[in-house]
Amino acid sequence: MNKAELISAMAEKAGLTKADAKKALDAFTGCVTDALKAGDKVVLVGFGTFAVSERAERTGVNPATKQAIKIAAKKVAKFKVGAELADAVEA
pTM for the full model? Predict the structure, then answer.
């Protein structure tokens, strides 16, 4: 499912216009992004948790030259699935 399909499904399920569903989806993704940028986590009980994790600097291998390279430390967004969503997918 891509973004356009998600917007259509949201509009149908919530009884919204596609324009309103797009605004709602954009607001949701914007709020989650802002929270993660601020170092907060977003917990949706039963659905899952969005959080930021830090990856340490590490050594990798350049596949073209086979030489060791340093991969810089960075922050990454992670999503941990909630129990209700995991059960729904499993069923």
Answer: 0.81
DSSP lists the bridge partners of residue 74 as 55
Orientation angle between helical segments 18-37 and 3-14, nearest 10 degrees: 120
Strand arrangement of the beta sheet that strand 42-44 belongs to? 42-44, 48-55, 74-81
Strand partners, 15: none
Q: What are phi and psi of 68, to 5 degrees?
A: -70, 140
Query: Cα separations (Å) of 6 from 10, 15, 16, 25, 84?
Result: 6, 14, 13, 9, 20
Q: pLDDT (tens digit, 9 = 90+) per residue, 3-19?
A: 999 999 999 999 999 99
Domain 48-91 adopts which CATH fold? HU Protein; Chain A (4.10.520)
